[in-house]
Design brief:
Structural class: mainly alpha
Helix content: over 70%
Shape: globular
Distance between the termini: 20 Å
Order of helices and strands: HHHHHHHHHH
Strand content: under 5%
Oligomer: single chain
Length: about 190
């Protein structure tokens, strides 16, 4: 189905990048492959693809390396290895801060917030999640804001404040309704 097409498209992009001797595109293609595999729950294969991407991108610019480090953090989070996840998210965060990639900074802060919340460190989770939410608001990333509200709602649940959690989830849901489904331009054309 869609997953097979996605993997085939990613592989075609990787093959084209290799043929064009374009390590930047090859590395991003490998990272994209890793992300698809991670969504399928194939974490070992995703880790191998991220490792290959890092090898290709390590002599390139920091943005691609940071994307891969964020991917490693997501894999570690999926494996419930909160210490490793936090280490990778923080490494990615440092690189994104160097280039002022604010949307990506917000994502890293959210990742740190989620793993510290899962570890029971509510103060660090609150700090990271609120910074992420503020940054998403400042950049106008409405989906990021909705995700941030979800995260702060989870924090409210952990702090035993269900009334606040319900209000935050309601706000997140209303914002998602306004945003509508998030689709690429190509997907929207197919649906039209």
């Amino acid at each position: 189905g869609q997953t097979d097409r996605a993997l085939a498209s990613v592989q075609a992009a990787i093959d084209a990048a290799i043929a064009d001797e374009d390590p930047w595109e090859e590395g991003l293609g490998l990272a994209a492959r890793a992300n698809v595999l991670a969504r399928l729950g194939q974490l070992d294969e995703a880790g191998a693809a991220f490792t290959a991407a890092l090898r290709v991108l390590e002599d390139n610019n920091g943005w691609g390396v940071a994307q891969v480090l964020y991917g490693f953090g997501s894999l570690a989070r999926a494996r419930r290895d909160n210490e490793s996840a936090q280490r990778h998210f923080r490494s990615a965060l440092r690189l994104f801060e160097e280039i002022d990639a604010r949307t990506e900074i917000a994502r890293c802060l959210a990742g740190i917030g989620w793993v510290t919340l899962a570890s029971g460190n509510l103060s660090t989770a609150a700090e990271s999640l609120s910074q992420s939410l503020r940054l998403s608001m400042a950049t106008g990333q409405r989906l990021g804001i909705a995700r941030g509200l979800d995260a702060v709602a989870a924090l409210a649940v952990a702090a035993r404040d269900p009334a606040t959690a319900v209000r935050l989830e309601g706000a997140a849901g209303a914002l998602r309704d306004q945003v509508g489904p998030v689709r690429s331009a190509a997907a929207q054309v197919r649906l039209d």
